[in-house]
Amino acid sequence: MGDRMRRFFQFLGFGDEEWVEEPREEEIPGPAPGPGKKGAVVSLHQAKSVKLVLCEPARFEEGQGIADHLRNRRAAVINLQKVPYEEGLRIMDFLSGVLYALGGTMQKIGPQIILCAPDNVDVQGAISEYLSGQESQDKTR
Fold this sequence. Notes:
The protein has helices at about 1-10, 65-70, 85-100, 130-140; strands at about 50-55, 75-80, 105-110, 115. It has about 140 residues and is of the alpha+beta class. It has a domain at about 50-140: SepF-like protein (Translation Initiation Factor IF3, 2-Layer Sandwich). It has a 4-stranded mixed β-sheet, with helices on one face.
């Protein structure tokens, strides 16, 4: 049992062998962080939710409210079926000017239904006409 104990103590460093001190490498300290510097922590869930507003104006004056939504960086889907054709054109002209000033986009997504998106909303893809006669009906109206 003495042999086992001697090997155990040698393993722990208390053995009979001569102590040989290894030369130490000097540690060179790196630059100390500044008082106000901290590591940049980025949250994975930083994306803000984008709001979409559904609008169905009955007259031209309601275009101002839609423009306010766009200015507040909210996308809008506008259904122009309840307004006369000429007023619908005026609303579209007004909103196209607003979107040009804001750097946004306008896209037709259905008969008399328009998607208006400010610059913070990325619109991908397009919706094709599902009926070839549908567009000709919209022009006569």
